[in-house]
Amino acid sequence: MDKRHISDGGEGWPQRDEREPPGLLQTADRTLQVLLAFDRGRTDWGVTEVAREFGWDKSVAQRILATLAYRGFLVADPQTRRYRIGPAAIQLARVWQQSRTLELLVQPVLDELTRRTGDSSLLCVPDGFHVRCVAAADGPAGPQRYYPLVGELYPAHAGATSKGYFAFLPPHECSRLFTDRPLARFTDHTQVDPVRLTEEFAAIRNRGYALSEGEYDGDTAALAVPVHVRRELYGSLSLGWRSGHSDDTTTRLPLLRHAASVIDDILGGTARRR
User: Fold this and answer.
1) How far is CA 237 from CA 2, 32, 112, 261, in A?
2) Does residue 1 belong to any structural domain of this protein?
3) Cβ 220 vs Cβ 144: under 8 Å
4) Is residue 137 classed as helix, strand or coil in its secondary structure?
5) pLDDT tens-place string over residues 171-212
6) Rg for the chain (alpha carbons), in Å?
7) Is 3 contained in some domain?
8) N or C: which end of the chain has fewer CB within 10 A?
9) Spatial distance between the Cα atoms of 149 and 141, rounded to a whole number of angstroms
């Protein structure tokens, strides 16, 4: 059966070919399926649960879990006999961060988003009380900065680029962003009142996107949506343009949301999980 999964965004968007490759090694594939089954909603697994989840014999599930534990990718709790992610995953995460593979994967999506909107596009991920730009595409008007956007930090309380991520955290985590911390005022439009910021974040969460003008850069407007990977909040995807130009969200928002879903598909590999 053809297992191809194609993005439905039309011509120009990156497309994925999810057909099962020839020579797929079943044992290796099963092992990776187990690793991918761990997420924030399911941080530990038992042998019986893994066998039931994937329709395997318990002996198969036990051997796979034991192998992963032997190599440090899982850790077995001797009391509960349940498995959690192990320290070997840290090594892979560090290599991933330094490899620029993320930029390689998402750059075509940003380039296409910029081509369709005429705006600069940015993918950002959390970095403490900021989001950090990890990939970007400059609009036809040229760079928004005299230095590269990649690596730029955006504070949680100023601008749609950061609010497109932080506003979608659980409310109790949002409130911690403004507690016992001085909030810098970058322009006259920067909001620094914790109460009003909490209300604004709730409004952003309800409507599903953030829109700002002149909050972080006085001459820049931005529109941002959250990026989820396997249903987990991952970062923000935003469009930026010069203040005073068209702020029409009707055209931009569907393209921005679709690009975020394409990034979810690329980074999450949802079609490969089962």
Assistant:
1) 32, 28, 13, 10
2) no
3) yes
4) strand
5) 888 777 877 778 889 888 888 888 899 899 999 999 999 999
6) 21
7) no
8) N
9) 15
Residues 144 and 158: their CA atoms lie apart, in Å, by 17
Residues 58 and 149 in one domain: no
Place of tokens 């109790």: 172
Nearest CA to 123 among 95, 99, 100, 93?
100
Cβ atoms within 10 Å, residue 151: 10
- Residue count (the chain): 274
Query: How many separate domains does the chain show?
Result: 2
CA distance 34 to 30: 6
Picking from 45, 60, 91, the residue at the C-terminal end of a domain is 91
* pLDDT reported for residue 161: 95
Q: Are residues 106 and 237 in the same domain?
A: yes
Give residue-wise pLDDT tens across range 90-145: 888 878 777 778 888 899 999 999 999 999 999 999 998 999 999 999 887 655 66
